[in-house]
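[SOLVED] Need 3D model of a two-part complex

Original post:
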Amino acid sequence: MTTPAFLSLFYAALEILGGVGFLVKDFFHEGLRGKIETHLLIEQIYQIGSRSFPLIALTAVCEGMVMTLQFGFSLSKFGGQPYIPKIVSLSILREMGPVFTSLMIAARVGAGIASEVGSMVVTQQVDAMRALGTSPIKKIVVPRVLATTITLPILASLANVIGILGAIVIGKSELRLDSGFFIQKVLSTIVLSDFYSGIGKTVVFGILISFVACYYGLNVKEGAKEVGISTTKAVVTTSILILIGDFFLTKLFWIIEHAF
Amino acid sequence: MNLIEVKNFYKSFGKKIVHQGVDFAVKKGECLGLIGGSGTGKSVLLRSLIGLEHPDQGQVLFEGQDITKLSENQLIDIRKKIAYVFQGGALFDSMTVYENLAYPLRAHTKLPESEIQEKITFQLSEFGLQGTESVYPANLSGGMQKRVGLARSIILHPDIILYDEPTAGLDPFNTKRIQEMILQMKSKGHTSILVTHDMPVAFAVCDRIAMLMNGRIEAIGSVDEIEEKSNHLILQFVQGEIR
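Solution:
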């Protein structure tokens, strides 16, 4: 008798949850013991952070421009164009900037981590690390998790600024909104909690992306073909987790904001 | 004195039973050859001796200590004493030859960089690899990769060396070279276990040979004893009729 599809999906989800859970345990138990290898961390910050910046900047500027155009066309029907700076800036800071940045990092960095680590497994480099008395968790997982968790909020902050700049440019060129007016409205609208609620999510997403990608990479077993499959799975899983996690984190930050 | 002892070793992968009660021991300074057909679990057994695989049942004793009970952190001290030479070299492809050799030294010693450099230069010259310090593994031939892998494995002066198919895929010249290196290690008193399909190499370097078949050690003895075995399957393998 074949297992129903939803049950297979449920088992697969449990397997991933369990596997990532063990990886998190090893991260704290094995990886954080002793000194953190700062040169590996810096290298990963460069690979994940600096090298992702052009992609993030392009995504952010497009997102700001498109949102301004869309809101511009829609709100002009009701004479609501003066509200565009408020709506666009709040949407970017609280939602679009952090989530788009996280999705792009999940695609670029998540895929990169899963395929690189998977290739290392296939070519026995991970076994060699263990055989030489060193910890792959410490050498591979710790620098990637820390680097992603550190750089994603920074990239998202920059994406917020670039997105708003894109919105200002399109506001002026397409909707004839004065730049000074746009900036003044943005500054009078956004408060620190808008920034924190967006950036807070990216810390969680950074942890999710890096652990899931490392898990898929380290669990490659059957050669080069599986490296590709694991890479795809890593990107799909992290993207789904970001989208689902976004709802719960938005709700959580909403509760926190209203509690204080 | 037995340096490594395997007792009642069982291992299976899913429904496939690979080992069902393997027993053998290796004395200090001895070279044991582990032979057997493809898929008989020679490499799995070798990997278990350094804790890269865990048996379903049984013991792997190193200097009397059961390493199957140790955690990854506890295994680190054992792994400093056991070198594992991987079939493909398993060199870190993002590092140069120099960095590959420096890796275990930087991880386990507090040697200054000048001494690390001295050691690496000496090690590379011992293995005929001078001038390859700044080369990346991808730019080395298969034979050179294996020699760098061997040089990296023994740079911490281990007590025992585990060779996983060290001559597989090599031309006769490089096979001879690796064979000489194994003999050189042996002459320095290193204990070794050699997993191989290459019977001439096994006969040339091993003191004893163990044949793995049907999940067990089917025969174990000196080279002469193995050749004299009456079991036709062993004879066929030794004479090159089974691969």
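Edit: The mean pLDDT of chain B is 88.
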